[in-house]
Design brief:
Mean pLDDT: 86
Structural class: alpha+beta
Largest sheet: 4 strands, mixed
Low-confidence stretches: none
Number of strands: 6
Strand content: 35-45%
Distance between the termini: 26 Å
Oligomer: single chain
Helix content: 10-25%
Radius of gyration: 13 Å
Shape: globular
């Protein structure tokens, strides 16, 4: 499905999980907005490349895929604009830096 126009009604799912997608979008917040729309309570997403110790903002092509590095402050500011009840962050060490973010709708 198109992440910018998911084929589900508002609040269709209690929990929405999106892995390895947002860091490939030019405007991740538009995709996140759609995930939030179809969720009634929680959205769990991950970001690779930069939401942690290596916070930078840049774009690169790696093995045919476009990857975006996002600035931590920018991501948290944009997530806060969605007026969550809570945001929980889970940094994870793996081959690539990864951060899981659990967003609870307000």
């Amino acid at each position: 499905a198109d992440i910018y126009s998911l084929p589900f009604g508002d609040n269709s799912f209690d929990f929405v999980y999106c892995k390895d997608v947002l860091n490939h979008l030019e405007h991740w917040e538009n995709g996140f907005s759609e995930l939030r729309r179809v969720s009634s309570r929680y959205v769990l997403v991950n970001f690779f490349y930069g939401l942690g110790t290596s916070t930078v903002k840049k774009k690169e092509v790696y093995d045919g895929h476009i990857n975006h590095y996002y600035d931590w402050n920018e991501v948290m500011t944009k997530l806060s604009a969605f007026q969550p009840l809570a945001i929980v962050v889970y940094p994870r060490s793996c081959e690539f830096e990864e951060t899981m973010i659990l967003f609870q709708k307000g």
